[in-house]
Amino acid sequence: ISMAWLARAVSGRTYRGSRCNIGFTKELYFGVKGFTHLNMNIGENDLFIQRISTYDNVSVVLIPKGTMVERQWGGLRWWLSHLHHYAEAYRFYPIAARNAMEWDVASQMLFFLTVLTALVFMPLEFKAVAALLLIIRYVVVVARVSSIAKRVGERGVVLRYFLFDLINPLMVICLRVAMMRKDTTAWK
């Protein structure tokens, strides 16, 4: 998920920033009258970043010494409630940012469903093409994830990312179902 944030920031379409890892000038802060979503316990930094970021005022720094490690406290239920809590600000995101996030997961689901359908129902030639496309996709994914992991000094990320890539569409569906219930801890 962090790679998606960084990729969008590098391409000039920043939509998110961790409050521990963002920096801005005093002029920029007061030029937009500071944080205007202070009634939120979470997500106000994302909305602030979306207001101030332009193509030419965002820089991304990737160094191994700048990596932040967050320890997990609980199991799947804790993690989903954690995601639900952080996703409360999502409805305030600009439509372009929401569309990009939705399209990322939708295209991933569509790809996997297409490959699965081809492997189950199509003739042998189509099965071979679908399997080849799946292999090509994972070769590209492994190359990109390995490259980024090497730059930030991470080890053992490729296998975990492979598993994440497989279950990400299901996680998003679970999160969408959880988002139907209001999170009372996200607002003051």
SSE series: HHHHHHH
By DSSP (H or I, 4+ residues per run), the number of helices equals 7
Query: Main beta sheet, described?
Result: none
Q: Kindly give the count of domains.
A: 1
**What is the terminal separation in angstroms?**
27 Å
Beta-strand level of the residues, as a percent range?
Answer: under 5%
- Helical fraction equals 55-70%
State Rg: 19 Å
The chain-level structural class is mainly alpha
Q: Which term fits the overall shape?
A: globular
**What is the chains' assembly state?**
single chain
Nearest-integer average pLDDT:
79
Number of strands: 0
Which stretches are low in confidence, meaning pLDDT under 50 for 5 or more residues running?
none
Salient structural properties:
61% helix, mainly alpha, 188 residues
What is the topology?
Elements (H helix, E strand, L loop, with lengths): L1 H9 L15 H6 L12 H9 L23 H11 L8 H27 L2 H29 L4 H23 L9
Helix pairs in contact: 4-7, 5-6, 5-7, 6-7
How would you summarize what this structure contains?
This protein is mostly helical.
Describe this structure as you would to a colleague.
The chain has 188 residues and is mainly alpha-helical. The chain is built from seven helices and no strands. It has one domain (2-179). Helices cover 61% and strands 0% of the residues. Helix 5 (95-121) packs across helix 7. The radius of gyration is 19 Å and the shape is globular. The mean pLDDT is 79.
